[in-house]
Design a protein that fits this description.
Radius of gyration: 23 Å
Structural class: mainly alpha
Distance between the termini: 56 Å
């Protein structure tokens, strides 16, 4: 094969990046280098932690103890809770 410097130049990346790829391939196999989706899945606005937090609140409590002006969970109540607890605004 080629040197890591040659590969770096070929792909327009640093030698350090290529070194990381080689290390990862040695540790996890070549499949670890396959192109995949990065970041949150498309269409999601919440992190996994925020989803767990919201699920816990929605399943364990009613809106009124959380100082929301609703007796039951409605879309509007969930939207207000999202803003308050996660800082995320969504339309309904």
């Amino acid at each position: 094969g080629r040197s890591q410097g040659e590969v770096a130049q070929l792909f327009g990346v640093s030698v350090r990046a290529v070194n990381g790829w080689v290390s990862r391939a040695r540790r996890e196999g070549r499949a670890a280098l396959a192109v995949g989706m990065r970041g949150r899945p498309k269409g999601t606005r919440l992190t996994g932690r925020q989803i767990r937090k919201m699920t816990g609140l929605l399943c364990d409590r009613r809106p009124d103890p959380l100082q929301l002006p609703f007796d039951l969970w409605t879309r509007e109540a969930v939207v207000q809770l999202l803003v308050r607890k996660c800082g995320v605004e969504v339309s309904i």
